[in-house]
Amino acid sequence: MAQYWYHTEVMIEYMENYLEAFHRHNNVFSQFCTSKSTKKVLEALKKQLTLDEQEDRESDPASNNLSAATKRHRVDEGKTHIESEIAQHLVNESDFNFVKMHLLNHFSDHLH
User: For the chain, what are the domain ranges?
Assistant: First the structure.
């Protein structure tokens, strides 16, 4: 739409709505926009969280009396917790910064 020669108010509103929707959902790109240093931090965080989870399970005296299924369930819960922590850290530390995308914020101003 942006490449049309003529733009109506309705078309401009459509483009603004599309841009807003894009910015609401641009977090899907976060895993692809991580720096090398962020990736290293995430690897270290995952390693540390995994060790912490393992130490917690091993230090629990009641764990000796648990069935194998319950132990597996605890391990799965720990993995889920680690994955959610990693995902949250990834969202917090990733930088979605495409310069040309920022220019679109000003597109409708130039048409009015």
Answer: 9-111
